[in-house]
Amino acid sequence: MIESSQTNIWEGHWACAVLALNGVLEEKLVPAALEATIRKNLEKTVEEHPNEKQYRMDKEYAGFRDGILSVLVQRDQSCHALGHDVIYAYYILETLSRSKVPATAELYNAMTKLLDEFAASGPGYVTINESNIIIDPEGTPATAIRVPLTPAVVLDLFHNFQRPYQMEKGDMQLGHLLTHGHSILGLQQEFHEPGIVQLETSLFTRLDVLAYANGLENNQAEYDPAFTTTMSSPLEQPFWEQAFTDSRHGHYYKYAYSYLKLHQMAGRNPSDFRSFSRIL
User: Which top-rank group of organisms is this from (predicted)?
Assistant: First the structure.
Protein backbone atom coordinates (compact mmCIF):
# COMPACT_ATOMS: atom_id res chain seq x y z
CA MET A 1 0.00 0.00 0.00
CA ILE A 2 2.88 2.36 0.74
CA GLU A 3 4.35 1.89 -2.72
CA SER A 4 0.91 2.17 -4.32
CA SER A 5 0.47 5.57 -2.67
CA GLN A 6 3.73 6.68 -4.28
CA THR A 7 3.02 5.42 -7.80
CA ASN A 8 -0.49 4.29 -8.79
CA ILE A 9 -3.42 4.02 -6.37
CA TRP A 10 -4.83 1.06 -8.30
CA GLU A 11 -1.75 -1.05 -7.66
CA GLY A 12 -3.06 -1.48 -4.13
CA HIS A 13 -5.38 -4.06 -5.67
CA TRP A 14 -2.54 -6.56 -5.48
CA ALA A 15 -2.07 -6.00 -1.76
CA CYS A 16 -5.80 -6.57 -1.30
CA ALA A 17 -5.62 -9.67 -3.50
CA VAL A 18 -2.90 -11.18 -1.30
CA LEU A 19 -4.87 -10.41 1.85
CA ALA A 20 -8.04 -11.86 0.31
CA LEU A 21 -6.26 -15.12 -0.53
CA ASN A 22 -4.87 -15.26 3.00
CA GLY A 23 -8.39 -14.75 4.30
CA VAL A 24 -9.80 -17.58 2.20
CA LEU A 25 -7.12 -19.93 3.51
CA GLU A 26 -6.92 -18.85 7.15
CA GLU A 27 -10.68 -18.74 7.63
CA LYS A 28 -11.19 -22.13 5.95
CA LEU A 29 -13.77 -20.81 3.50
CA VAL A 30 -13.10 -23.52 0.90
CA PRO A 31 -12.69 -27.31 0.96
CA ALA A 32 -9.24 -28.43 2.06
CA ALA A 33 -8.66 -30.06 -1.34
CA LEU A 34 -8.49 -26.60 -2.94
CA GLU A 35 -5.90 -25.12 -0.60
CA ALA A 36 -2.84 -26.20 -2.60
CA THR A 37 -4.16 -24.55 -5.76
CA ILE A 38 -5.06 -21.39 -3.87
CA ARG A 39 -1.56 -21.26 -2.40
CA LYS A 40 -0.18 -21.45 -5.94
CA ASN A 41 -2.28 -18.40 -6.80
CA LEU A 42 -0.99 -16.63 -3.71
CA GLU A 43 2.65 -17.43 -4.45
CA LYS A 44 2.29 -16.33 -8.06
CA THR A 45 0.70 -13.02 -7.05
CA VAL A 46 3.49 -12.25 -4.58
CA GLU A 47 6.20 -13.23 -7.06
CA GLU A 48 4.76 -11.19 -9.93
CA HIS A 49 4.10 -8.08 -7.83
CA PRO A 50 7.02 -7.79 -5.42
CA ASN A 51 7.60 -4.81 -3.19
CA GLU A 52 10.63 -2.73 -4.02
CA LYS A 53 11.36 -2.16 -0.33
CA GLN A 54 10.75 -4.06 2.88
CA TYR A 55 8.17 -2.70 5.31
CA ARG A 56 9.90 -0.72 8.04
CA MET A 57 8.90 -2.04 11.47
CA ASP A 58 8.99 1.39 13.09
CA LYS A 59 7.23 2.59 16.22
CA GLU A 60 3.47 2.12 16.13
CA TYR A 61 1.41 5.20 15.32
CA ALA A 62 -1.19 5.36 18.10
CA GLY A 63 -3.78 7.28 16.11
CA PHE A 64 -3.77 4.96 13.10
CA ARG A 65 -7.15 3.25 13.45
CA ASP A 66 -9.12 6.26 14.67
CA GLY A 67 -7.54 8.48 12.05
CA ILE A 68 -8.40 6.19 9.14
CA LEU A 69 -11.96 5.63 10.36
CA SER A 70 -12.42 9.36 10.84
CA VAL A 71 -11.39 10.07 7.25
CA LEU A 72 -13.87 7.47 5.97
CA VAL A 73 -16.79 8.63 8.10
CA GLN A 74 -16.30 12.28 7.15
CA ARG A 75 -16.87 11.32 3.51
CA ASP A 76 -19.66 8.83 3.95
CA GLN A 77 -22.39 10.59 1.98
CA SER A 78 -21.09 9.67 -1.47
CA CYS A 79 -19.29 6.82 -3.17
CA HIS A 80 -15.66 7.27 -4.10
CA ALA A 81 -14.00 5.22 -6.84
CA LEU A 82 -16.51 2.33 -6.67
CA GLY A 83 -15.99 2.08 -2.91
CA HIS A 84 -12.27 1.44 -3.10
CA ASP A 85 -11.57 3.87 -0.26
CA VAL A 86 -13.61 1.70 2.10
CA ILE A 87 -12.26 -1.54 0.60
CA TYR A 88 -8.58 -0.60 0.95
CA ALA A 89 -9.12 0.71 4.47
CA TYR A 90 -10.94 -2.43 5.58
CA TYR A 91 -8.28 -4.80 4.28
CA ILE A 92 -5.49 -2.93 6.03
CA LEU A 93 -7.30 -2.33 9.32
CA GLU A 94 -8.54 -5.91 9.53
CA THR A 95 -5.08 -7.29 8.79
CA LEU A 96 -3.40 -5.09 11.37
CA SER A 97 -5.99 -6.03 14.00
CA ARG A 98 -4.98 -9.69 13.86
CA SER A 99 -1.24 -9.39 13.34
CA LYS A 100 1.79 -8.22 15.26
CA VAL A 101 2.88 -5.89 12.45
CA PRO A 102 2.92 -2.31 13.78
CA ALA A 103 0.70 0.31 12.16
CA THR A 104 3.40 2.88 11.51
CA ALA A 105 3.18 6.58 10.73
CA GLU A 106 4.58 5.80 7.27
CA LEU A 107 1.69 3.43 6.57
CA TYR A 108 -0.81 5.91 8.00
CA ASN A 109 0.44 8.66 5.71
CA ALA A 110 0.27 6.29 2.74
CA MET A 111 -3.29 5.22 3.52
CA THR A 112 -4.60 8.74 4.06
CA LYS A 113 -2.99 9.77 0.77
CA LEU A 114 -4.73 6.88 -1.00
CA LEU A 115 -8.07 7.79 0.56
CA ASP A 116 -7.61 11.43 -0.46
CA GLU A 117 -6.83 10.41 -4.04
CA PHE A 118 -9.83 8.10 -4.22
CA ALA A 119 -12.06 10.94 -3.02
CA ALA A 120 -10.55 13.29 -5.59
CA SER A 121 -11.05 10.75 -8.39
CA GLY A 122 -14.84 10.97 -8.12
CA PRO A 123 -17.46 8.22 -7.92
CA GLY A 124 -15.99 6.02 -10.65
CA TYR A 125 -17.38 5.45 -14.11
CA VAL A 126 -20.31 3.34 -15.27
CA THR A 127 -20.40 1.65 -18.67
CA ILE A 128 -23.39 2.91 -20.67
CA ASN A 129 -23.83 2.17 -24.37
CA GLU A 130 -20.23 0.90 -24.51
CA SER A 131 -18.83 4.18 -23.17
CA ASN A 132 -17.46 4.87 -19.71
CA ILE A 133 -19.56 7.63 -18.16
CA ILE A 134 -19.29 9.36 -14.80
CA ILE A 135 -22.68 9.98 -13.21
CA ASP A 136 -22.88 12.58 -10.46
CA PRO A 137 -24.46 10.86 -7.43
CA GLU A 138 -25.75 14.21 -6.19
CA GLY A 139 -28.11 14.49 -9.15
CA THR A 140 -29.28 10.88 -9.14
CA PRO A 141 -32.72 9.89 -7.81
CA ALA A 142 -32.58 7.89 -4.57
CA THR A 143 -34.33 4.73 -5.72
CA ALA A 144 -32.59 2.07 -3.61
CA ILE A 145 -34.55 1.19 -0.49
CA ARG A 146 -32.44 2.07 2.54
CA VAL A 147 -32.38 -0.69 5.13
CA PRO A 148 -29.78 -1.52 7.79
CA LEU A 149 -26.98 -3.53 6.21
CA THR A 150 -26.45 -7.11 7.26
CA PRO A 151 -24.53 -9.87 5.45
CA ALA A 152 -27.83 -11.29 4.21
CA VAL A 153 -28.94 -7.88 2.93
CA VAL A 154 -25.70 -7.38 0.98
CA LEU A 155 -26.06 -10.82 -0.60
CA ASP A 156 -29.70 -10.19 -1.49
CA LEU A 157 -28.85 -6.82 -3.03
CA PHE A 158 -26.18 -8.52 -5.10
CA HIS A 159 -28.38 -11.42 -6.21
CA ASN A 160 -31.40 -9.28 -7.03
CA PHE A 161 -29.80 -6.39 -8.89
CA GLN A 162 -30.08 -6.91 -12.64
CA ARG A 163 -28.19 -5.15 -15.40
CA PRO A 164 -27.34 -5.90 -19.04
CA TYR A 165 -24.33 -8.10 -19.67
CA GLN A 166 -22.44 -5.55 -21.75
CA MET A 167 -22.60 -3.04 -18.91
CA GLU A 168 -21.21 -5.47 -16.33
CA LYS A 169 -18.54 -6.63 -18.75
CA GLY A 170 -17.41 -3.03 -19.11
CA ASP A 171 -17.19 -1.94 -15.48
CA MET A 172 -17.47 -4.93 -13.07
CA GLN A 173 -19.88 -3.05 -10.80
CA LEU A 174 -21.69 -6.05 -9.32
CA GLY A 175 -18.51 -7.59 -7.96
CA HIS A 176 -17.68 -4.32 -6.27
CA LEU A 177 -21.07 -4.35 -4.56
CA LEU A 178 -19.85 -7.51 -2.84
CA THR A 179 -16.45 -6.17 -1.82
CA HIS A 180 -17.79 -2.75 -0.83
CA GLY A 181 -20.64 -4.20 1.24
CA HIS A 182 -18.37 -6.78 2.84
CA SER A 183 -15.86 -4.09 3.76
CA ILE A 184 -18.50 -1.88 5.41
CA LEU A 185 -19.82 -4.80 7.45
CA GLY A 186 -16.31 -5.94 8.31
CA LEU A 187 -15.46 -2.51 9.71
CA GLN A 188 -18.69 -2.44 11.71
CA GLN A 189 -18.12 -5.90 13.12
CA GLU A 190 -14.46 -5.37 13.93
CA PHE A 191 -14.49 -1.92 15.49
CA HIS A 192 -18.03 -1.20 16.76
CA GLU A 193 -17.62 2.52 16.15
CA PRO A 194 -21.03 4.28 15.92
CA GLY A 195 -19.98 6.46 12.99
CA ILE A 196 -19.14 3.51 10.75
CA VAL A 197 -22.82 2.81 10.12
CA GLN A 198 -22.86 6.01 8.07
CA LEU A 199 -20.70 4.26 5.47
CA GLU A 200 -23.80 2.34 4.40
CA THR A 201 -24.95 5.50 2.62
CA SER A 202 -22.16 5.15 0.07
CA LEU A 203 -23.29 1.64 -0.93
CA PHE A 204 -26.91 2.67 -1.44
CA THR A 205 -25.76 5.72 -3.39
CA ARG A 206 -23.92 3.38 -5.75
CA LEU A 207 -27.09 1.35 -6.21
CA ASP A 208 -28.95 4.56 -7.08
CA VAL A 209 -26.32 5.34 -9.73
CA LEU A 210 -26.46 1.84 -11.21
CA ALA A 211 -30.25 1.83 -11.39
CA TYR A 212 -30.20 5.23 -13.10
CA ALA A 213 -27.53 4.01 -15.54
CA ASN A 214 -29.68 1.01 -16.48
CA GLY A 215 -32.31 3.42 -17.76
CA LEU A 216 -29.77 5.11 -20.05
CA GLU A 217 -28.62 1.87 -21.69
CA ASN A 218 -29.98 1.49 -25.22
CA ASN A 219 -29.42 -2.26 -25.42
CA GLN A 220 -31.85 -3.54 -22.83
CA ALA A 221 -31.31 -7.23 -23.56
CA GLU A 222 -31.10 -8.26 -19.93
CA TYR A 223 -29.06 -11.39 -20.34
CA ASP A 224 -26.40 -12.81 -22.58
CA PRO A 225 -26.05 -16.64 -22.76
CA ALA A 226 -22.54 -16.48 -21.34
CA PHE A 227 -23.86 -14.24 -18.59
CA THR A 228 -26.22 -16.86 -17.22
CA THR A 229 -25.13 -20.34 -18.24
CA THR A 230 -21.40 -20.38 -17.46
CA MET A 231 -21.08 -21.42 -13.83
CA SER A 232 -18.09 -20.22 -11.85
CA SER A 233 -17.77 -21.45 -8.28
CA PRO A 234 -14.88 -20.64 -5.90
CA LEU A 235 -15.69 -23.94 -4.19
CA GLU A 236 -14.46 -25.84 -7.25
CA GLN A 237 -11.03 -26.37 -8.78
CA PRO A 238 -11.66 -24.80 -12.24
CA PHE A 239 -12.31 -21.39 -10.68
CA TRP A 240 -8.84 -21.25 -9.13
CA GLU A 241 -7.19 -22.69 -12.22
CA GLN A 242 -8.74 -19.92 -14.30
CA ALA A 243 -7.70 -17.33 -11.72
CA PHE A 244 -4.13 -18.62 -11.94
CA THR A 245 -4.20 -17.89 -15.68
CA ASP A 246 -5.85 -14.47 -15.37
CA SER A 247 -7.02 -13.12 -12.02
CA ARG A 248 -8.30 -9.89 -13.61
CA HIS A 249 -6.17 -7.57 -11.53
CA GLY A 250 -6.79 -9.70 -8.46
CA HIS A 251 -10.57 -9.39 -8.65
CA TYR A 252 -11.06 -13.17 -8.79
CA TYR A 253 -9.58 -13.35 -5.29
CA LYS A 254 -11.38 -10.40 -3.73
CA TYR A 255 -14.77 -11.38 -5.14
CA ALA A 256 -14.39 -14.97 -3.97
CA TYR A 257 -13.32 -13.92 -0.49
CA SER A 258 -16.19 -11.46 -0.06
CA TYR A 259 -18.81 -13.83 -1.47
CA LEU A 260 -17.78 -16.76 0.71
CA LYS A 261 -17.22 -14.63 3.80
CA LEU A 262 -20.60 -12.92 3.49
CA HIS A 263 -22.28 -16.33 3.31
CA GLN A 264 -20.41 -17.43 6.41
CA MET A 265 -21.39 -14.24 8.25
CA ALA A 266 -25.03 -14.68 7.17
CA GLY A 267 -25.12 -18.34 8.17
CA ARG A 268 -25.94 -19.32 4.60
CA ASN A 269 -24.64 -22.17 2.48
CA PRO A 270 -23.30 -20.91 -0.88
CA SER A 271 -24.91 -23.37 -3.27
CA ASP A 272 -26.24 -21.37 -6.23
CA PHE A 273 -23.46 -19.59 -8.11
CA ARG A 274 -25.44 -18.24 -11.06
CA SER A 275 -25.36 -14.70 -9.69
CA PHE A 276 -21.69 -14.97 -8.78
CA SER A 277 -20.91 -16.14 -12.32
CA ARG A 278 -22.17 -12.82 -13.70
CA ILE A 279 -19.21 -10.90 -12.32
CA LEU A 280 -16.30 -12.76 -13.90
Answer: Bacteria
Gyration radius of the chain over CA positions = 18
For the chain, 280 residues long, give each residue's pLDDT as a single digit of tens. Answer: 999 999 999 999 999 999 999 999 999 999 999 999 999 999 999 999 999 899 999 999 999 999 999 999 887 656 788 899 999 999 999 999 989 999 999 999 999 999 999 999 888 899 999 999 999 998 899 999 999 999 999 999 999 999 988 899 889 999 999 999 999 999 999 988 888 998 999 999 999 999 999 999 997 765 554 455 467 899 999 999 999 999 999 999 999 999 999 999 999 999 889 889 989 8
**C-alpha closest to that of 210 among 177, 259, 233:** 177
CA neighbor of 93 nearest in space, from 108, 82, 79: 108
| Dist. CA 143–CA 214, nearest whole Å | 12
Contact (CB, 8 A) for 265 and 185:
yes
Give SS3 for 127. strand
C-alpha distances in Å from residue 107, one per residue of 52, 182, 191, 223, 268: 15, 23, 19, 43, 36
- Which residues, in sequence order, are CB contacts of 98 under 8 Å at separation 6+? none
Calpha distance 83→76 (Å, rounded) = 10
Residue 20 near residue 256 (C-beta atoms within 8 A): yes
Instruction: Delimit the domains of the chain by residue range.
Output: 2-277
Angle formed by the axes of helices 35-48 and 12-26, nearest 10°:
160
- pTM > 0.85: yes or no: yes
Q: How far apart are CA 240 and CA 107, in angstroms?
A: 31
**What is residue 128's three-state secondary structure?**
strand
